[in-house]
Specification:
With 202 residues, the protein is mainly α. It is built from 8 helices and no strands. The longest helix has 26 residues.
Length: 202
Amino acid sequence: MKKVTLKIGISAIIFLALMTLVITHHATGIDNWGFGIDHGTILDPNTPWMLEITYFSSPAIWVTVLNLVILYLFFIGKRYAAAIYMAFWLDGAIILATVIKILVGRHRPLHQLILDSGYSFPSIHTMTAAICVLMFLSLFKTHNAKYHLFQVLAFVWVVMVAASRVYLRNHYPTDVMGGAALAYLWTNLLWYLNHRWLHIIK
């Protein structure tokens, strides 16, 4: 439990620091550095790949798929507590991120390669990708080689999703960092509650 508590503390500090930088308009240096590394154009040969990544990682797709799984667990599998816990894990994160977006009220970058609406901080694309990965890793944790390989591939996938959002200028670099930090914070908070009091998932 000490490790989980430490993870909660570190991720909370990172997320709150990023949010403070955004609110106080001091995130420009980080964002300009990030855009300098990862900024594309319509005619760039990498643009089609980035478009595919951002479309495939759409929160609407993954939230729909996972909620169907949750409904199956609830109505068919009769695993009521687990289904409610997973719904709170996924949908609670989306609701929390949406509320933070509204409160922070950060507008999206200019010159988007594909038009996206709504506020910018944190990136729900990145957060959803990270939540899905963390959910799978937490639910099916083992110590074999296949699991560790999946850990690496999952990390690469989340980085690619985050990079695509910055590349297409739908988000600032601090937005995707914030999305990833929020996903990690939320996951560890729920994991702490589960192991301390709920005992729903082993």
